[in-house]
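The authors assume throughout that readers already know how a fold can be written as discrete tokens. For illustration, here is how one protein appears when written out as sequence plus structure tokens:
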Amino acid sequence: MAIYLLRRFNLFLATSLLMLLILFYVTAMFPVDRAFALTGIENPSAAEAMQIIADYRLDKSEFSQFLAFVDQRLSGNLGISVTSQQPVAHELTSVMPASFELAAFAAMLALLLGVPLGVLASLNQHKLTQHAIMAITLTGYSIPVFWLGLSLALWFGVELGWLPISGQINLLYEIKPVTGFMLIDTLLSDSEYRIPAFKDALSHIVLPGITLAILPFTVVVRITRAAMMNVMNQTFIRAAEARGLATATIIVRHALPNALIPLLKHLGLMLGAFASYAIVVEVIFSWPGVGSWLVSGIYQRDYTVILGGVLAVSVLIIFLSILIEVLHTASNPLSRKELYASN
């Protein structure tokens, strides 16, 4: 197992290094001076210009410049935002928790609703029910996320006025950031309005959370249904039925844990699509996360923000994909058997 983990770690390093190489190549294509694209300093003084040349080795070969670029980025130096004149790393850490909170909320909705519905679709003997569930999931999978987000905002936010359509919380509430997760920070706050603030934050995350959850929800339902239908035909399930175990016990203790293993693998494969959906959702609902921050940087031609945001999102996707693969291997007996056999 140690050799397998070492291989996955090497894969993470190699993929991240390739991403850094692509970003380094892209900086040369920006229609501005490379020093400005790397640092965000538009009119550096003589001393600053010399320091930039020394830090990024701009007077050296391309390979030496790439090594310097990697060294600066790994040390946490992502440059300065052109628009705000604040360190990009500081801005990134301030918007990252909001994206994590939205993604976690959407993933929780997708799993809590998708897994039971997938189990129901696999066990239900009525063809009409099965076809109805699969038709709903196929429709949800086919709907463009921008159209769905705008439609939900129009129906439930503008016409009915049930839910807010922008922001993370009402500006009237002053919540001191502790964890960066607004739902948690409102409950941790010592303000006498923490419960109304929590309800307000919850109402703000409902529409973007539902919009972002549609894609993983449909995938969860379809994969869970297919996996459950396969598991329920296995020999150990037949043996459990022959022993007289209740159907609910068989499903919860034996069938469902085995059906969730392929689901874990497919969730890892859709991280890239999930991240792109999240960016669109954040822009639609003005959610103060990495997506809206990155798109704003693109509109304003803030090259350091673009480089820093793309690097952070890419490395995070690479890390989570490899982590899910490791978890899938550790939880799958067949994968562990092949792993030990290869070692």
About this structure: The CA atoms of residues 221 and 341 lie 33 Å apart.
